[in-house]
Amino acid sequence: MEKIKSAYKKINLADWKRKEHFAVYRSQMKCGFSLTTKINIAKVLPFIKENGYKLYPVMIYLIARAVNKHDAFKMAMKEGELIVWDYVDPIYTVLHSETETFSALTAIYDKDFTRFMANYNDVGERHADNLHFFPEQPPENHFNISAIPWINFDSFNLHIADFTDYFAPSFTIGKYKKQADETLMPIAIQVHHAVCDGIHVAQLISTLEEYCENIETVIKSQV
Fold it and tell me: Which among 21, 192, 193, 200 is annotated as catalytic?
C-alpha cells in the first residue's frame, strides 16, 4: 500500500499550557520516564480465536488506536518547531527465529481494522526473508512497539543513551498470565517527559483497557 505522508499541526509554545514543563524537561533537566502495568485481555483472546487472528497484530492495532487518540503521544520536533502529527504509524519488531535477531517493520495506521490488518499482512509478506534491522525506511510519524512473549514481567525499562528531542513513545508487551477471571498482559511504556506526564500515560492506559474490554464494539466502530 502506498504511504500517504502524514500532515501535522504546529504547537504555539507561547500559548501552550505545558510550555514551562516542556522547556525544563527538554533542556534543563532532560528526562523521560517508564511505567509498567498489566492490562486484562480476557475479551481479546476469544475474539482472536473465533476470527482466526494472531494476538500480536491485534494488540498492535489496539495500541496504535489508543496512541492516535491522544496528542501527547504524537508529538515531534520538525524544523525546529514542536508539532503534533495527524496520526502516527507503529514500528514493531518481528523475530527471525533462525538467527534470533529481529527486524523493525512499519504498518500504515488505519482506524479501520480490516485495512490495518491488510497493511500488516502485506508488510510481513514483503519482508518475510529480509533480515535487516530496517527493511524499509521508517516514517517520521511513528511510535514503537516490541514484544517479549516468553516472559511475564513486572517491570521493564528501556534505556536510551540520548533521546534528545526524540518524543515518540515506546511500548513493550510481555507474556500474558491467567489470574482468577482475568488474563493479564504486562505492558511497559516509555515516554519523554518534555511532552508527556503521568496523567497522559494514565489516560492512554484507560483507553487501551476500554478497547480490550470492548474489542468487538471497538473493531466495528470508526469513531
Answer: 193
Query: Are the CB atoms for 81 and 10 separated by under 8 Å?
Result: yes
pTM, 2 dp: 0.95
With contact defined as beta carbons under 8 Å apart, do 105 and 94 qualify?
Answer: yes
For residue 168, give every residue at least 6 positions away whose Cβ sits within 8 Å of its Cβ, in sequence order, or none: 76, 88, 142, 143, 144
Dihedral of the alpha carbons of 79, 80, 85, 89, in degrees to the nearest 10: 70
Active site residue 193: yes
Secondary structure (3-state) at 47:
helix
The cell numbers describing 195, all together, are: 511532552
Query: Which one-letter DSSP state was computed for residue 72?
Result: G
First-residue to last-residue Cα distance in the chain? 23
Separation of alpha carbons 64 and 75, rounded Å = 14
Least confident of 59-63, 69-73, 161-165, 217-221: 161-165
